Amino acid sequence: MWNKWLRQPQSLLLRRILFQIHMWVGAALGLYILMISVTGSLLVYRREMAAAVSPVYVTPQARRLTRDELSTIVRRAYPGFSLEKVFAPSARGQEIPNQAIEIQLRRGDDTIERLLDPYTGADLGDTERPALTFILWVADLHDDLLGGRTGRLVNGVGAIFATLLAFTGAILWWPGVRNWRRSLTIDWKRKRYGFNWSLHNAIGFWMLSFILLWGISGIYFSFPKPFNEAVDFLEPLSASNQETRFGDDVLFWLARLHFGRFSGLPVKAIWTVLALAPALLVVTGSLMWWQRVVRRKPRRLAQVEAATATSHETQTNRSFGGKATEVL
Fold first, then answer.
1. For 51-65, what is each residue's pLDDT tens digit?
2. Which residues contact 222 (CB under 8 A, 6 or more apart)?
C-alpha cells in the first residue's frame, strides 16, 4: 500500500473514497465558502473603511453651543419639532472635541436623527450613512451569518468542514513521485478540464497553510472554550505565568493572523488578495464537479442508448436472417 501511495496513489481505494468526500463536501459548501472568502477579503480593511465614513469630523472652536442654543437652531430648521436628545461622542468620560454630535428631534410620533456641528449648529446630514451600514452588514454576515449567536455556531460548523476540505485536499494533491513537481505549477498549455485541474491543484497546494489558518481560527472564534481549556490543561495558571502564557500568545496570534492585522497596509493588501483564493478554489472545483458528475451523466446515457440501439439492430438482423433462411 505504501508503494502504491508513493507511485500510483490513484489506484488506492482509500484515495478514491477521500476524493468522493472532498468532491461532495466541496459541492455542498461551495456557496458558503465563496461568501466567506469574498466578505473576508473586504473586511481586511474594515477599520480603515469604517474610519473613512464614521465618525464625522468638525473643526474645534473656543466655545460649544449650549443645549438651549441647539434647540433654537433646530426649531428654525425643523418647524414643529423639538430637541429630544443630544448624543456627544466621548472617550474615557470626556467629549471628543473634533467629532459631530447626534441629535434626536420629535414631533408627536415622528422622530428625526441628524448630525450637527456642536460649535456652529450646522446640519451635517443624516446619522444613517449607507456606506457604514453596508460595512457593518458585511461584518455581521461574515462573523455571524446575520443570525446572532446561532449564526456564529453555524459558522463554526462550516469552518470545521472547510478545514476537513483542506486536509482531504492536501492528501488528494499527491500525484506520485514522478508527477509531484508538475502539480506545483499551473500548466498553461493544457485546455479546459486539464487546465482547470492544474489550476485547482496549484492554488490548493500553495494556499494550504492559509486555508488551514482561516479554518482553524474560524473554529476558534465560534467555539473558544475548548481552545482555552486546552491551554489551561497544557499550561495551568501559576504565579509565574499569570501575565503571559505560550498558549495564550498562540491564540492571540491566531486571531491576528486571521485578519492580517499584525502589520501595516502592505500586509493587509496581500491578505486581501490571498483571501480570495478559497473563492477561486470553489470556482475551479465546481467546474470539475460539473464536468465529472453533471456532464458525464448525459454522455453515459447517450452511450447506453447507442449500445442498446446497436444491440437491438443486431438482434433484428439476426432474426430477419433466420426467417429468410427458413423461407429459402
1. 777 788 899 999 999
2. 152, 153, 155, 156, 157, 159
